[in-house]
Amino acid sequence: MGAFVISRRFNDEYKFVFTSRKGKVIFTSLSYELKFECEEDIEKFKLNVDQARFLKFKGSGGKYFFKLMLGEVHFATSRKYTTELLLQKGIKEIVTYSSKSEILDFSSNESIFEDEEVVEEEEVE
């Protein structure tokens, strides 16, 4: 099952990505000034995924992508795909799993991993 992952952009705004069951990013949201706005839009999307529209495009480099629309609002943009079939599989993953997907919050500045120096010191001992 996929997951919604909240994180921060370099400008301190929030964003989320939807990842596939294999951990690949399928789409990235627009920016949010406040984290609760991000969380609210994820919940709104999960409840209304059946109303989402996927506008498909082919970029100048020959890769495929889609813009995810919720109502008339541009909600997110997909990653680039090499074929239309892979793009369609990404859309199917969203439709199938997004309403049941968990939300993971990695937006705090605290490191979720041990400091590299600490790990190296432990390995030396």
TrEMBL record:
Name by which UniProt lists this protein: DUF1508 domain-containing protein
Organism annotation: Flavobacterium pectinovorum
